[in-house]
Amino acid sequence: MERTLSIIKPDAVGKNHIGDIIQRFEKNGLKVISAKMMHLSKSQAEKFYEVHKARPFFKDLVSFMTTGPVFVMVLEGNNAVQVNRDLMGATDPSKAEKGTIRADFAKTIDENAVHGSDSLENAKKEIEFFFSGNEICERTR
Ligand code: CMP
């Protein structure tokens, strides 16, 4: 059993696709064990995406991520990190496979609907960035 972090980004939230995207996760065996809606500050977005600080797209990424609220979730399931990545599709929606979240709900690499942790190690860090232990709800049934 793994846990991973998912963010529904401001573009997809703005287009009212929160439910459509969660449905993809639930239909594919992932369970939401914590969730919250929040409007990231510039410093929160900069800190979350710190690894990309030196990349040319960093400034635009931070700017986009603060344009509107995001919906942040902890997903749990077998092989959750990879399952989430497969469901999201390629970072660039124009290269994402048909039927993936990014192919269906996004148009550009800058506004690509969702973020998902890229490894189990980063999943742990990203979950801790947004959620404290007592905000995670174990599924008891
Ligand atoms: P995400 O998975 O949230 O991680 C970093 C984000 O930067 C990525 O999705 C894209 O939305 C954005 N981005 C913009 N340009 C690029 C690029 N050339 N390579 C990777 N990510 C990019």
From TrEMBL:
Subcellular location: Cytoplasm
The Nucleoside diphosphate kinase-like domain, residue ranges: 1-138
Known EC number: 2.7.4.6
GO cellular component: cytoplasm
Active site: H115 (pros-phosphohistidine intermediate)
Keywords: ATP-binding, Cytoplasm, Kinase, Magnesium, Metal-binding, Nucleotide metabolism, Nucleotide-binding, Phosphoprotein, Transferase
Protein's UniProt keywords contain Cytoplasm: yes
Protein name, as recorded: Nucleoside diphosphate kinase
Species for this entry: Candidatus Criblamydia sequanensis CRIB-18
Gene that produces this protein: ndk3
